[in-house]
Amino acid sequence: MTNYASEFLNESAEKAFDLDHRRIINYNIGKYDAAVERGLLKFSNLENSKRKAHVIKWKVMENLDKLLPEFEANFQRKGGKVIWANTAEEANAEILNIIKKAGAKSVIKSKSMVTEEIHLNEFLEGNHIETLESDLGEYIVQLLGQKPYHIVTPAMHLSKEDVAKLFNEKFGTPTDATPQQLTLKARELLREKYTSADVGITGGNFLIADTGSLALTENEGNARLTTTFPKIHIAVVGIEKIIPSMSDLDLFWPLLSTHGTGQNLTVYNTILGGPKQEGETDGPEEMYVILLDNGRTNLLAQKDQRQGLYCIRCGACLNACPVYKNIGGHTYESTYSGPIGSVITPHMQGMEDFKHLSFASSLCGKCSEVCPVKIDIHKMLLLNRRDSVEQGFVTKKEVYTWKGWKSGMMKRKMMDMLSGSWKNRLLKFLFRKSYGTNRAIPKVAPKSFSQTWKEENPEQ
C-alpha cells in the first residue's frame, strides 16, 4: 500500500531545494501573474462578477438533480447520447465499449483533466488502442511519460531548453530550436493524426442545461480539430460542470480565461450541441457525453465543503499558492494539485490517503482571494483537517501531543511550570523529526513574558 503522506514529504523536501526547478516555476508563474493582473483590469466590477458566479454555482449544486436530466434530455433530442458513470472504471469501460463497437484503433485527445483523473490513456494503451494527446503541453509530457504538472499549463515545469532537448532526442530537431520551430514540428507531427484517428476524446469546460450543449475553451484549436475530423466524439465531463443557461457563458468564459491566462477570452471557444445534423458538412457522426461522478457526490454530501465543486479549473489558486510554487504539481500525486486539489482530493480519493494535502498549507488565504467563483479555499482546508481528526486518521501520539499543548496554553500556571530550557528540550523531543533537517526549531525565551513583566514592574 502506497504511503502518500510519506512520499509527499520526501518529494516536497527534494523539490523545495531544487533551485533550477524553483527558477523555472517562478519565471513561468510570474509571466502568468503579470498577464492576469492586466486582464482583470478589463472588468468594470470584478468583485460583483465573482459574487454572481458564486451564486450561480451555488444554485447549480442545490439543483444538480434537475439540471443534469435537463441537459440529458436536450442533448439526446439532437441525437447525442449520454452515459452516466459512477466510477473511473465504469467510465473507462464505457469508452472502450464505444471504441470496440466501432472497430476503432486510434484515438486523438484534446487537453482534459478529467481523462487524466480516470487514467484513460493508460487504460486504452493497455487495451491496445493508440492514444495521442493533441494539446502541445500535454503532448510534451506524454512524450516524457509524465503527468500534467499544472491544471492549465501541463508542461509549466519545463524550460524551452528542456523541450528543445526532448524534441532533438525524439525527432532530431536542432538542440537550439526556437519555440516557434518546435511548435511547427509538433503541428507537422499532429496534423496527420487528426485526419486518421477514428475517435476524438475531449473533456468539457461547461455543460449547458437549457440547450443541451457542451462548451470547450482552448488556445490552440486542437479541441476543435479533435471534434471535427473523427467520426466519433466522446466528451468526458464531471457532473459539477453544468451551468443553467447559455447566457451564463457571458460571465463564466471571461472569468475562466482571464484568471487562467490573462486573456479577455481564449482564442477558440466552441459550443457543441450533438453529432452532425442532416445537411451539415462538419462534425462527428456520433457524439457521446459521459457524465462522471467518481467521488464528486461524496463531496456534494459534505455541506460545509461542497464549495469545492464550484471550481472552474482556471488554475489561479495554484499560481498564487506559496506552497505550490515551491514543491510543484507532481508532488501532490493527484490529478488536481495546489490548493483546490488539496480541498477536493481527500473526498474524491479517500481522506485516509490524502488528508496530508490539507495540512500542506500556510493558510495565507491568497487562494481564496484570487478564486473567480469565491470558493473559501483556506476555510475548506481547515474543515478537511477537522474531518480527518474526527474520522480518526491521526496517530495517538499526535492526539496526546495536542491535548497536552491545549492544556498548557489554557492555564498560565501550566505554561510557567517549566523553564525555558526545559521547554526547548520538549520541543526538540516532540518536533525534531517533523520539522525536517532544513528548518531550525524555534527557541523559547528563558523567561515567559509574564515573569519578565513582574520583574521589571514590581510595583504593579
Describe the structure.
The chain is an alpha/beta fold. Among the domains are: about 40-295, NagB/RpiA/CoA transferase-like (Rossmann fold), CATH 3.40.50.10420; about 395-455, no CATH class. The protein has helices spanning about 5-15, 20-40, 45-60, 65-75, 90-100, 115, 120-125, 135-145, 160-170, 180-195, 220-225, 250-260, 295-300, 315-320, 325, 340-350, 350-355, 355-360, 365-370, 375-390, 395-410, 410-415, 420-430, 450-455, and strands at about 80-85, 105-110, 130-135, 200, 205-210, 215-220, 230-240, 240-245, 270, 285-290. A six-stranded parallel beta sheet has the order 1-10-7-4-2-3, with helices on both faces. It starts with a helix and ends with a helix. The mean pLDDT is about 95.
Count every helix, treating DSSP H or I runs of 4 or more residues as helices: 24
Q: Could you say which overall geometry the principal axes of the C-alpha atoms support?
A: globular
Q: Terminal Cα separation, in Å? A: 61 Å
Strand order of the largest sheet: 1-10-7-4-2-3
Q: CATH class of the domain at 42-294, anyone? A: Alpha Beta
Kindly report the CATH topology of the domain at 42-294.
Rossmann fold
Structural class: alpha/beta
Helix content: 40-55%
Radius of gyration from the alpha-carbon trace, in angstroms: 25 Å
Sheet with most strands: 6 strands, parallel
Low-confidence parts lasting 5 or more residues at pLDDT below 50?
none
